[in-house]
Amino acid sequence: MKRRLLYVVLFVLLSGVIHTLKAQQVTVKASIDSTHILIGDQLKLLFEIEKPKDLDIQFPQVPDTFSSKIEVVNRSKVDTFKLDDKERERLTQSLFITSFDSGRHQIPPFYFRMKNGQMLDSAATRELMFQVHGMKIDTTKGPVDIKTVYGAPVTLKEVTPYILGIILLAAIIFFIFYYIRWKKKNVPLFSKPEKPAEPAHIIALRELDRIKTQKLWQQEKLKQYYSEVSDTIRIYIQNRFDIPAMEQTSSETIGVFKQQKALVDDRTRDQLQHILSLADLVKFAKYTPLTDDNNLTLMNAYFFVNQTKKEELKAPEKTEVELKEEPAEEIKVAK
Q1: What is the C-alpha separation between 126 and 110, in angstroms, rounded?
Q2: In 3-state terms, what secondary structure has residue 76?
Q3: Which helix (H) or strand (E) holds 215?
Q4: Do 226 and 283 meet the contact criterion of CB atoms below 8 Å apart?
Q5: In angstroms, rounded to a whole number, what is the distance separating the alpha carbons of residues 285 and 279?
Q6: pTM of the entire predicted model
Q7: How buried is 25 (Cβ within 10 angstroms: 0-12 exposed, 13-18 middle, 19+ buried)?
Q8: 8 within 8 A of 101, measured Cβ to Cβ
Q9: What are 6-15's pLDDT values in tens digits?
């Protein structure tokens, strides 16, 4: 019985020694980054713990105001760091505190609870002190008026958004007016630049060549043949003389040439009248012309275009006298 009691006592003592060794392997530390601050400034309170990995430690639950004059502004999460000794680790947590009362303030110890198996223990940090300084006021000057707000100079970075906004607004307004203007003119808003117009006689002669190649009247397509010939001549008259021949009747077009005799001579006007009159008979009266009339109509069309086309101005050729009067170029002969 005495031996069993002795074993129990030894076991209890041995457990206490092991617990003491575990407690000695834990290092708890609290520090602040400054001991003097101005009223309202913040301090960083840092908790650091080094412990064995298999030891559970609970950080203290610090309230938002752990002293009558000290407040907690913010707190970070607990971070874990590896040490050179793989069996140990470091835990850290930061608290940002402040005070709005000047004077000397004391940060009390913080207790960390440890659990090793069924054994509970705690480790405490040391007390910390810091000084809060108030703003110095010069009482010798007496009451001082509140200063007005000073206007800071405007920087380019501040005005850039307004400048870009004005440019964008101006571009939108310009586009709206541009769109309305072209809408009224009933023309495309965006169009390719037109190519320089070809001379009227070039277009007409090319069209007559096409009609000649098609051989429409030989295929008994008389109405189409006379329609295309007369339309070609009417478009030529419209482009060459600015006479709306496409909207006029044949008699109205011939009447314009009779009134303005300087435009064409009598023979040319008669050939035009033969083309338009015969075309009207074929198109509207279902007249069937002779073969000679078909050939003559196309020949008259060629003749009318060639007789009335606008001649391109050429540089006058120099006469033999002018060529002799020009100074001869000096010819240098190598000696």
Answers
A1: 8
A2: coil
A3: none
A4: yes
A5: 10
A6: 0.39
A7: middle
A8: no
A9: 444 444 443 4
Residue with tokens 């586009």: 175
Q: Within a domain: residue 292?
A: yes
Quote the domain boundaries for residue 96.
Answer: 24-133
Longest dimension (CA), the chain: 160
Length of the chain in residues, anyone? 335
Q: Are 225 and 294 in contact (CB under 8 A)?
A: yes
Amino acid at 153: P
Q: Is 43 helix (H, G, I), strand (E, B) or coil?
A: strand
- Domain-located, residue 221: yes
The token pair that represents 2 in the structure block? 């005495």
The span from the CA of 28 to the CA of 51, in Å, is: 9
Residues 6+ apart with CB under 8 A from 109: 30, 124, 125, 126, 127
Q: pLDDT digit string (tens) for 51-97?
A: 888 888 888 888 888 777 888 888 888 888 888 888 888 889 898 98
> What's the one-letter identity of residue 248?
Q
Are the beta carbons of 227 and 279 closer than 8 angstroms? yes
147-185 pLDDT per residue, tens: 666 667 778 788 888 888 899 999 999 888 877 877 776
Q: Which of 81, 101, 133 is the last residue of a domain?
A: 133
